[in-house]
Amino acid sequence: MQRVIIDMDEVIADPMGDMIAWYRNKYGLEVDYQKMLGGSWLRGFPEDHQVIVKNRLMAEGFFRNLSVMLDSVEVIREMNKRYEVFIVSAATEFPNSLKDKLEWLLEHFPFLTWRQLTLCGDKRLICGDFMIDDHVRNLEQFKGKKYLFSSAHNMDVKGYDRINNWREAADIFLR
Amino acid sequence: MQRVIIDMDEVIADPMGDMIAWYRNKYGLEVDYQKMLGGSWLRGFPEDHQVIVKNRLMAEGFFRNLSVMLDSVEVIREMNKRYEVFIVSAATEFPNSLKDKLEWLLEHFPFLTWRQLTLCGDKRLICGDFMIDDHVRNLEQFKGKKYLFSSAHNMDVKGYDRINNWREAADIFLR
Description:
The structure is a homodimer. The two termini of chain A are about 15 Å apart. The first copy, chain A, has 2 domains: about 5-15 and about 65-175, HAD superfamily/HAD-like (Rossmann fold, 3-Layer(aba) Sandwich); about 15-65, no CATH class. The first copy, chain A, is built from 7 helices and 6 strands. In chain A, strands 3-2-1-4-5-6 form a 6-stranded parallel beta sheet. Chain A has helices at about 15-25, 35, 50-60, 70-80, 95-110, 135-140, 165-175; strands spanning about 5, 85-90, 115-120, 130-135, 145-150, 160-165. In chain A, α4 (about 70-80) runs parallel beside α7. By secondary structure, chain A is of the alpha/beta class. The interface of A and B includes residues 3 and 99 of A. β3 of chain A pairs antiparallel with β3 (about 115-120) of chain B, so a sheet runs across the interface.
């Protein structure tokens, strides 16, 4: 069975979307998507609010209550029958996110088990046949086939095959 | 730089030693080391106490307060200058251990960073040049050079190069 490595944030979970909705609601302000280009959606928030946003990101519970990316559950349920699926999240920068991420995954993807989750600091030590990730820094050194999952912060990136949504992932992996 | 994958429990941290000391103190009983052979030190505890032991293992705080394995700090500090060191722990079975393990590592090995820790469910997706681990199930499918770190539960295992303690690891990696 071929192994597919799937990222969590901005790929199956939606921290950016949650944060933008919360920010709009609390401050009545919009983010600047242009400023996200280059790799970090945090930069889309006004500079004097970035500490508040970062603190919310670091707090216990934030990653527990995120929305699930559209169609990801249905497509990964099918992929899990045909591939060895691993969810790999660069999460050790956020100590409070670790248990939240595990519980979130098992709630929304009940067909996956704790054996299929990896929480790491650096994805260079992850090997597999396919990787789906929204960050070039994670894909760069991967030895298998790479797919950049489209997100506001990577729309300027060239040179990668893209997956724009989970319907497209189904077209690739479930043909 | 070559990459060394180092396990946590029974290799740099001592959950078995802590549990045995606690058990002896609480019940005045000894464990049966013979029964650990085959892969699980939990089996060394009397059957009617195994639930109590497992519950203590699952509780928040258990992995936060473990002893550090003799000489591991000094040897890994030097290894970290010559190799790309990653600490990889099969931990997602224990939701309450995740943050504890991160905090424990950064306290006792302050020269390592969160980037060097991976908490996973299955080590088959980990690649590197060397792996030091006390479980055959983790070493089996590793593509690089494997070292079985000796522990009470693996003394019957044949067919692996062994590291019996961190002085021996220094002889191998810091010659």
